[in-house]
Design brief:
The complex is a heterotrimer of chains A (229), B (84) and C (121). Chain A has 229 residues and is of the alpha+beta class. Helices cover 37% and strands 27% of the residues of chain A. In chain A, strand 2 and strand 3 form a beta hairpin. Chain C has a domain of 79 residues. Chain C starts with 13 loop residues before the first strand and ends in a 19-residue tail after the last helix. Classes of the chains: A alpha+beta (229), B alpha+beta (84), C mainly alpha (121). Chains in contact: A-B, A-C, B-C. Chains A and C meet through helix 1, strand 6, helix 3 and strand 9 of A and strand 1, helix 1, helix 2 and helix 3 of C.
Chain lengths: 229, 84, 121
């Protein structure tokens, strides 16, 4: 019998998780070791497919903990034997405790920004020359567009940073994670500052009508679990 | 007509909610076993999430495909012979 | 000794946007570049490796294109050289299209997630 692992906390994570239905309908429980507390449930298989029910069950359990204290969430699909979990806690305890200190009292908020694809510029006149030359000219136009896009992303990133000055303990920003997304940001925000953060974000949105925003949260600090910056 | 629009709106929002959730729980978070991290000069450069691979976590395609099947649809069969 | 309780939170994450369909489209695209699965049965091993190899070739191909444009801008290439260079890169792009089709791979399939650095392409 394996364990499905949801999240990790320390002694403060004495949350009643048993009343939430976990993955595969199993009841979550706590495993305490090395000054850490893992939230797990029994799981019979070696693997798990990404299904809506599974993902929502995972989130439901982690969220139950998040309501009271900030844990380090496991990636969806973390399945281990009890022995493996215990050895993980034993060997990684220092790093994990440091990570817990990093996120203590805070939650993750997300901001994603898109711009409207502007109408493509009118087709530039084709230069004279063979097909090879025209090919390179086309590439040149595409690359110039790229450069502009990168510049814009950097500007929006800087602007957002200023708009949220002092409200995020930490920020992790990914510039242009996909073609139309200008940036995707994760902010680590003190629980007590959430209202201020939301207000600042609300104001900022109105300053940039040409940008489309998606904000979400609060999330468990999925983005803030890696040790390196 | 209005009902259909509302239904579509709710669908879009719940799909978005799922996608946003996936964006958090699939690519980030703690990983215990089987992650290969290749580092240079103490900086982690390449992460191959073997735990994901070995756990045969399908891509988000599966979730969305399943969603298209509707609530009555069962789980799609996984491909054969996966790497343990 | 339990530390003072943290500020409690509502259970559901709020998701706030005026453009649900647009963001759903983008997030779907982002989620499609998850690390590819390595399967053990013969056909998918081939495809898994093909994906990896083609991703690297594609990466280099794009670097070559960028470099060629830079050289062209630099003004040190004669018109015939520009033409030759363009034709060769054009053929390379065409060849990559064929290879992708041969292995049933779409443009979005060719990518590598490099963790905090982001994606390769």
């Amino acid at each position: 019998m394996n364990l499905y692992a949801y999240c990790l906390g320390d002694e403060a994570t004495a949350v009643a998780v048993g009343d939430v239905a976990g993955v595969a309908g199993a009841r979550p429980r706590l495993v305490a070791r090395a000054g850490l507390t893992a939230v797990v449930s029994e799981y019979g298989e070696e693997r798990i497919a990404v299904t809506r029910e599974g993902v929502l069950a995972h989130e439901r359990v982690v969220r139950r903990v998040l309501a009271e204290t900030t844990p380090l969430p496991f990636r969806f699909g973390t399945i281990v034997s009890e022995a493996r979990l215990e050895s993980y806690l034993d060997t990684q305890q220092a790093k994990l405790k440091a990570q817990l200190a990093r996120v203590r009292g805070a939650v993750e908020m997300s901001v994603k920004i898109i711009w409207n694809r502007e109408a493509a510029g009118a087709g530039a006149e084709e230069p004279a020359g063979g097909s090879g030359t025209r090919f390179l000219m086309k590439k040149r136009r595409e690359l110039l567009g790229e450069g502009e896009a990168e510049g814009r992303a950097a500007e929006v990133d800087a602007w957002l940073g200023r708009a949220l000055e002092g409200l995020a303990r930490e920020s992790l920003v990914s510039l242009r994670p996909s073609e139309n997304l200008i940036l995707a940001a994760a902010h680590l925000v003190e629980r007590g500052l959430l209202a201020d953060y939301r207000r600042a974000l609300g104001r900022a949105r109105t300053e940039r009508p040409e940008l489309h925003f998606l904000t979400s949260g609060a999330w468990p600090p999925y983005s803030f679990t890696r040790v390196d910056p | 007509m209005a009902d259909k629009e509302l239904e579509q709106l709710l669908d879009e929002e719940s799909e978005l909610s799922l996608l946003e959730t996936l964006d958090h729980v699939l690519n980030r978070g703690l990983v215990i076993a089987g992650e290969i991290t290749i580092s240079v000069a103490n900086i982690d450069l390449i992460f191959l999430g073997l735990n994901i691979l070995a756990s045969s976590v399908e891509t988000a395609h599966e979730v969305l495909r399943e969603r298209e099947k509707g609530p009555a649809g069962g789980q799609p069969d996984g491909p054969e012979g996966e790497l343990e | 000794m339990k530390p003072s309780p943290e500020v409690p939170l509502p259970v559901e994450p709020e998701i706030n946007t005026l453009h649900a369909a647009e963001f759903a489209r983008e997030l779907r695209r982002v989620s499609e570049t998850l690390p590819p699965r390595i399967n053990i049965d013969a056909q998918s091993v081939e495809q898994g490796l093909a994906k990896l190899v083609l991703t690297l070739i594609e990466f280099i191909r794009r670097l070559l294109e960028k470099q060629a444009v830079r050289r062209m801008e630099g003004g040190d290439l004669a018109p015939e050289q520009i033409e030759e260079l363009g034709l060769a890169l054009m053929k390379l792009e065409e060849k990559m299209r064929e290879l992708k089709a041969q292995f049933g791979l779409a443009e979005e399939d060719l990518n590598l997630d490099l963790g905090p650095i982001g994606r390769l392409i």
